[in-house]
């Protein structure tokens, strides 16, 4: 009997990606930007699909099903509600354009899904409700028997926030039962993106910068405004149209109203100085986001009765909010998958379609993050980079790397398979000692070329995490902000942000043996089992998924060296 092959796609929207299941086994997953170099690309994931086909040893004709992460017809659900906005003076001006834009995007999405059949002529095309794909991925990746599943993003067709119960009907066969949904215009992702843009950063890319800036501001200044602009309701929350203009699916329409600007500050140009008003606005936005997320988590606990929570959607990348939910004690454990944003829905879509069409269980999804291409035997030709030199590392590479890090060098690391999601987790990382004076300034100024207030995340061996961090659970995917202990404040202030938290990654021997060895070797030399870990890229570029991208990063940044699959490369 031939295998049942399902290709999952996130395509024609931001963070294009692909995943492949063969008889339920996850062959791999990768975001297109890691191979093409185009950050947040919306293009069909040509490189990702080609790698998956090669990895599985199959052709497009052997794909049985293509799972697409949007269902175009569901966009049309917004059209009647848009006409209802004609009755309200606050929304009347945009009502017709809103209806037209959702209808246009819905029909375009239908055509795009249908067009996939030309690439995979023997496959059945399955468009799926966007939040269903988020829910399936978040729960399947947890590996838990049961959990509440909360998805919060900007927009999936019409839905923006959904609550579900996840259960394993039998091992490897997760089932997600929807319970509750909020629809646009009630969108926390829309609001956060709007203010991010107002503060001078790129919406859909630099919300993390605003989250970092928030720690430097005073939320009290705009607290009342955000309570009015994002009111909490019995069913969740809403957006006040006096402050957030109704969404029109076109970049030519602003998201904030003149009233919002009048009550806060003028829009900041990207190269303009950051003022106290900007810091305070970010702080108030972040505070309200945390309050809403905590309220939604309360609803999830009350309505499901579950003791565990899975989070998905773009807002789940707000690690400070996730940390607040964990600290609340509402749940015994909280899980965020490595790729909670749209890219990860390629896995969720493929899993949902497989479970509908095959009796075989899923395998290779739970707890997995190193899912993309590896380049163990890549030929090294430095002709393009004449300033670089390389030699093979002899002896234990973990000991070798730890020695150079303890000596104060900042090193890029390229090893094994590409990570899933927005965080580098030890395979495509820039590493540095948190004990070196001025290391954060050097990383921001000469390596990453980014804002000086941006913090850096620590990675720590799981068995010693409690000495430095108060989170109380493992955090393998760097998705949770943790409080810190007095020991952390004393020994590693470089990784403690202004809000007294750190976005920690806990590393186990099973999860990443090489990085666990490096941390252990570093601890033998310094007494501290912690390294700074940031992504192998510079601002505005994607994480380096290929050797060529990594060598470019070394040649065009202030990195001291790059350890690329056992080869030590310096400039």
How would you portray this structure in words?
By secondary structure, the protein is α/β, with parallel strands linked by helices. It is built from 17 helices and 21 strands. It has helices at residues 33-36, 46-56, 78-84, 92-119, 130-142, 188-198, 207-214, 223-229, 258-263, 276-304, 319-328, 345-357, 397-406, 439-448, 486-491, 513-526, 547-555, and strands at 5-10, 17-22, 25-31, 65-68, 124-127, 146-156, 159-170, 173-183, 232-233, 236-237, 308-312, 333-335, 389-392, 411-414, 428-432, 457-461, 480-483, 501-507, 530-535, 561-564, 567-570. Strands 13-21-20-14-15-19-16-18-17 form a nine-stranded mixed beta sheet, sandwiched between helices. Strands 3-2-1-4-5 form a five-stranded mixed beta sheet, with helices on both faces. Helix 5 packs across helix 12 (345-357). The chain is globular. It starts with a strand and ends with a strand. The mean pLDDT is 96.
Briefly summarize what is shown:
This protein is of the alpha/beta class. The protein has helices spanning 33-36, 46-56, 78-84, 92-119, 130-142, 188-198, 207-214, 223-229, 258-263, 276-304, 319-328, 345-357, 397-406, 439-448, 486-491, 513-526, 547-555, and strands at 5-10, 17-22, 25-31, 65-68, 124-127, 146-156, 159-170, 173-183, 232-233, 236-237, 308-312, 333-335, 389-392, 411-414, 428-432, 457-461, 480-483, 501-507, 530-535, 561-564, 567-570.
């Amino acid at each position: 009997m031939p295998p049942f092959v399902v290709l999952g796609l996130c395509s024609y929207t931001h963070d294009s990606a692909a995943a492949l299941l063969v008889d339920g086994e996850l062959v791999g997953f990768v975001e297109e930007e890691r191979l093409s170099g185009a950050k947040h690309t919306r293009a069909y994931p040509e490189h990702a699909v080609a790698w998956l086909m090669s990895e599985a040893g199959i052709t497009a004709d052997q794909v049985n099903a293509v799972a697409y992460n949007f269902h175009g017809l569901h966009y049309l659900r917004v059209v009647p509600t848009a006409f209802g906005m004609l009755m309200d003076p606050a929304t009347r001006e945009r009502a017709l354009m809103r209806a037209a834009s959702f209808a246009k995007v819905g029909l375009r999405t239908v055509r795009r899904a249908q067009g996939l059949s030309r690439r995979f002529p023997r496959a059945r095309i399955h468009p799926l409700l966007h939040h269903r794909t988020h829910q399936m991925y978040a729960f399947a990746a947890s590996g838990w028997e049961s959990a509440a599943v909360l998805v919060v993003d900007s927009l999936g067709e019409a839905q923006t926030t959904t609550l579900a119960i996840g259960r394993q009907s039998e091992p490897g066969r997760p089932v997600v039962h929807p319970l509750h949904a909020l629809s646009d215009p009630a969108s926390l992702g829309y609001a956060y993106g709007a203010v991010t843009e107002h503060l001078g950063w790129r919406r859909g890319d630099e919300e993390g910068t605003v989250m970092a800036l928030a720690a430097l501001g005073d939320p009290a200044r705009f607290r009342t405004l955000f309570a009015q602009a994002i009111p909490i309701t019995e069913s969740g929350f809403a957006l006040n149209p006096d402050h957030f203009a109704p969404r029109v699916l076109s970049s030519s329409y602003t998201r904030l109203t003149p009233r919002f600007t009048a009550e806060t500050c003028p829009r900041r140009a990207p190269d303009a100085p950051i003022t106290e008003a900007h810091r305070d606005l970010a702080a108030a936005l972040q505070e309200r986001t945390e309050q809403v997320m905590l309220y939604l988590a309360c609803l999830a606990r009350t309505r499901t009765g579950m003791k565990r929570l899975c989070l998905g959607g773009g807002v789940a990348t707000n690690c400070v909010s996730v940390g607040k939910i964990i600290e609340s004690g509402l749940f015994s454990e909280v899980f965020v998958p490595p790729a909670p944003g749209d890219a990860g829905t390629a896995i969720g879509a493929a899993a949902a379609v497989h479970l509908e069409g095959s009796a075989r269980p899923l395998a290779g999804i739970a707890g997995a993050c190193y899912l993309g291409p590896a380049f163990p035997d890549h030929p090294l030709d430095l002709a393009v980079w004449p300033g670089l030199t390389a030699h093979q590392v002899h002896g234990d590479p973990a000991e070798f790397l730890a020695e150079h890090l303890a000596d104060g060098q900042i090193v890029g690391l390229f090893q094994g398979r590409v990570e899933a999601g927005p965080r580098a987790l030890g395979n495509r990382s820039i590493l540095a000692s948190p004990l070196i004076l001025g290391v954060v300034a050097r990383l921001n100024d000469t390596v990453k070329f980014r804002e000086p207030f941006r913090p850096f995340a620590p990675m720590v061996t799981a068995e010693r995490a409690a000495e430095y961090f108060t989170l109380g659970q493992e955090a393998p995917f760097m998705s949770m902000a943790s409080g810190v202990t007095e020991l952390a404040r004393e020994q590693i202030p470089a990784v403690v942000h202004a809000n007294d938290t750190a976005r920690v990654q806990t590393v186990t021997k099973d999860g990443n043996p090489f990085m666990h060895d490096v941390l252990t070797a570093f601890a033998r030399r310094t007494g501290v089992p912690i390294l700074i870990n940031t992504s192998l890229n510079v601002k505005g570029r994607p994480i380096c998924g290929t050797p060529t991208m990594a060598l470019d990063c070394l040649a065009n940044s202030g990195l001291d060296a790059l350890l690329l699959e056992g080869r030590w490369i310096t400039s």
